[in-house]
Amino acid sequence: MLMTDLIAKKRDGGELSTEEIAFMIEGYTKGEIADYQMSAMCMAILFRGMNDRETLDLTMAMMHSGETIDLSAIAGIKADKHSTGGVGDKTSLILCPMVAACGVKIAKMSGRGLGHTGGTLDKLESFPGFNISIGQRRFIDNVNAIGLSIIGQTADIVPADKKLYALRDVTGTVPSIPLIVSSIMSKKLASGADVIVLDVKCGSGAFMKTEAQARELAEGLTRIGRLAGRRCAAVITDMDQPLGCAVGNAIEVREAISVLKGETKGDLLELCLTLGSCILTEGGLAETTEQARALLQEAVDSGEALKKLAELVAAQDGSAADVYDPVRLPSAPVQLEALSEQSGYVRHIEAEKVGLVSMHLGGGRATKESDIDLAVGLFLHKKVGDRVEKGESLATIHASTPEKAEEAARLLRACYELSDTPVERPAFIKALVH
Asked: DSSP H helical segments within 12-158, as ranges?
């Protein structure tokens, strides 16, 4: 079998066999197939596409390129959630404790933030001492004991994806649905969950800019998940503005705790209720969406969801006291209000640019090796549809120096677009895909 033949076959619109796809992924992972040949294949796939059978074979070949996680030692239904990324996305910190309080087991591997999008691991490390590298045995023991654990992805999980993603990033082949689906689902399947729920973002702050693009991706992800024998659902959500109000690490953790305490409602709670109800219904712990939402809301109202977050932090070498008293979390020395220079109604907020403001403050990474400041970021006081008066605060900037705070306030003001006439708030949940 020759890679040149496979490239030509896909270039001409042919269908790659299961054996050909396995040969290609195994050879590339081992370094036997050159980058330039794989980049040619990625471009051929970008233009010619793949059918569901090819995409499933690609996903499974990538999944088996390294270790897979065996969760059979965990009793009960195991669930996982994936977000396609966005600004202010602290969903896992709220959703995982909520569903764990309802009896679902969450054995989750997460990543760090890069660029303008935040990472769950960085947020969790805002709890002093929190250990994301507890080892697989302790990981499983914690899930059995308290119902959830969140750790970092190991280097041995889906090595093919790491090589392939880096290549796609520099060859203009990232926007291929089969390649995106196989990248996401190979990691989710390797992680061993029974139920996989996907939060697919669309809008200016997301990779998928339109709802139509997001739907195509969501349908592809759920189809491949089901073909692989997992229970899957996806929710298409708005990322035309940041999720919630906090953007940063410790700042987002405080907002997540506020939601779990029942103090904060809005889009963040709604997203967690929607994703959580998908998990409970797909996992068989609720018969209807209404019943699932009631169970999740009760977990918040009773304090059980907050207790689960405290148990998670304590089980991974942090202090539960930091959950119940979040003032103990890292705090920036400078707070500055970003005041509006005009009156009007908020028409649009450039979500990606807001994420970049936090990054410039030190709250995000330019490269994987960059150090981040867990305390800095910003908290929005005005979202789309809100009325703003001249001189009123758009957001509070949390910075390490007055100079950085002033520059961030200037950049943040440029993220806002105001209108003279009232603006209708856009629908946050765009669609559910089962």
From this structure: 18-29, 35-48, 52-63, 91-101, 120-124, 136-146
Of the listed 82, 123, 188, 293, which one is catalytic? 82
Sign of CA dihedral 111, 46, 56, 213: positive
Q: How many CA atoms lie within 13 A of 149 on its CB side?
A: 26
Q: Has 215 been annotated as catalytic?
A: no
Catalytic pick among 57, 161, 194, 373: 161
Q: Would the pTM count as exceeding 0.85?
A: yes
d(CA 148, CA 138): 11
Helix or strand or coil: residue 215? helix
Given the residues 78, 187, 398, 404, the one annotated as active site: 187
Q: Is 387 a catalytic residue?
A: no
Top CATH class of 78-155+168-324 equals: alpha beta
Domain boundaries, the chain: 3-49, 78-155+168-324, 330-419
Arithmetic mean of pLDDT over the chain:
94
Exactly one of 168, 188, 230, 365 is catalytic; which is it? 168
pLDDT number for residue 371: 80
- Multiple choice CATH, 3-49, 1.20.970.10, 1.25.40.10, 2.40.70.10, 1.20.1740.10: 1.20.970.10
Can you tell me whether residue 379 is helix, strand or coil?
A: strand
Range of weakest confidence among 159-163, 310-314, 381-385, 395-399: 159-163
pLDDT digits (tens, 9 = 90+) for 179-227: 999 999 999 999 999 999 999 999 888 888 899 999 999 999 999 999 9
User: According to DSSP H, which parts of 172-282 are helical?
Assistant: 177-190, 211-227, 250-260, 267-282
What is the tens place of the pLDDT at every residue in 399-410? 999 999 999 999
User: Is 432 in contact with 222 (CB distance < 8 Å)?
Assistant: no
pLDDT at 115 over 80: no
pLDDT, position 331? 96
59-112 per-position pLDDT tens digit: 999 999 999 999 999 999 999 999 988 889 999 999 999 999 999 999 998 877
Locus of tokens 């499933």: 56
CA–CA separation, 189 and 6 (whole Å):
26
Q: Which of 92, 182, 183, 358 is catalytic?
A: 183
Based on the residue annotation, tell me whether 168 is a catalytic residue of this protein. yes
Query: For the structural domain made of 330-419, what CATH number should be given?
Result: 3.90.1170.30
